Amino acid sequence: MNPEHQRIIELFGLVPPSVETESEAEEHESVGRDSDESVDLGDQSLREGDFRGAVEHYQRALRQSDGHEAAPLIGMGSAYECMEDAPSALRQYLKAHELEQDNPEPYLGMSDIYMRQGKTWEAIQQLERAVELDPKNPFYHLKLAETLRQMHLPTRALRAIRQAVLCAPDQSFYHYWMGDLQIEMRLYEEALLSLRASIELSPGDDHLYAKAGVAFWGAGKRVEAIKAIRLASDLDPDKNVYYGILQRFLIENGQPVEAQAEAARAAKMDAYDRELLDRMLREANFEPTAN
Questions:
Q1: Rounded distance, CA 286 to CA 226, Å?
Q2: DSSP annotation string for 164-193
Q3: φ and ψ at residue 238, rounded to 5 degrees
Q4: Cα–Cα distance, 247 to 243 (Å, whole number)
């Protein structure tokens, strides 16, 4: 199974077919009375991890619509993707595109398939077409930005995510994603502007303050960086990695007494925390002064 789909299943506690309850199995035996209802049942089966059942519902929806609707084909494409059957998925997306050439969703599905096949430029072309068809959809801009970033084209990725922000300026995540990319590009001052907007929209998210701490340090604003990490640790005192990075920042800033106060909690970091700490320090362009 695609790791992304597996994470979704685990995140929402979806039930795979092998452990399905009897009542759920009976529910899946429901038959849609029309195309829309069959698509809804297919979507439900997809969410629950019953991919073959989803295909059956989408096939029924396709018959009920006399093959004139793209939605069942797009649904089948998603189900086949979940079953790791890329050729079948691609066929469904292509058929959906033939039916509704002004529908951006088949392009989105085809881009996923092409990326998995290593056809990165074809994937970008599909996403660009989706954006052209629905330029006000921030998700399409985000997908394009993600793909460009994976291809190590950060400047183009930054242009794409800026469009997502323009489409959805009230969504904290898009500001955060842009700030994260700007940190990767060492554009720390710009990252601070993005992260400030993200924090204003989601002031209780400790991770945003930690990212801001990274950007502050990279921008040479050490006092602000330390304050941001302290705020992150205040919001979630159980994340030991914050004490680790705080200790390192304090030592480098010439505050050994304050750093020692964080030592006990920093010592509780596990292997995952230490890996995260190393990554955050790299992102901050942290270079300790030689003693």
A1: 13
A2: HHHH-TT-HHHHHHHHHHHHHTT-HHHHHH
A3: -85, -5
A4: 6
Q: What is the pLDDT along the chain (291 residues), one digit of tens a residue?
A: 555 555 555 555 555 554 444 444 444 457 778 888 888 888 888 888 888 888 888 888 888 888 778 888 888 888 888 888 888 888 888 888 888 888 999 998 999 999 988 899 999 999 999 999 999 999 999 999 999 999 999 999 999 999 999 999 999 999 999 999 999 999 999 999 999 999 999 999 999 999 999 999 999 999 999 999 999 999 999 999 999 999 999 999 999 999 999 999 999 999 999 999 999 999 999 987 654
Among 45, 55, 57, CA closest to 20: 45
Classify residue 220 by its DSSP letter.
T
Determine phi and psi for 204, rounding to 5 degrees.
Answer: -100, 10
Closest CA to 123 of 141, 109, 135: 109
Measured distance CA(279)–CA(263) in Å, rounded: 19
pTM of the prediction?
0.80
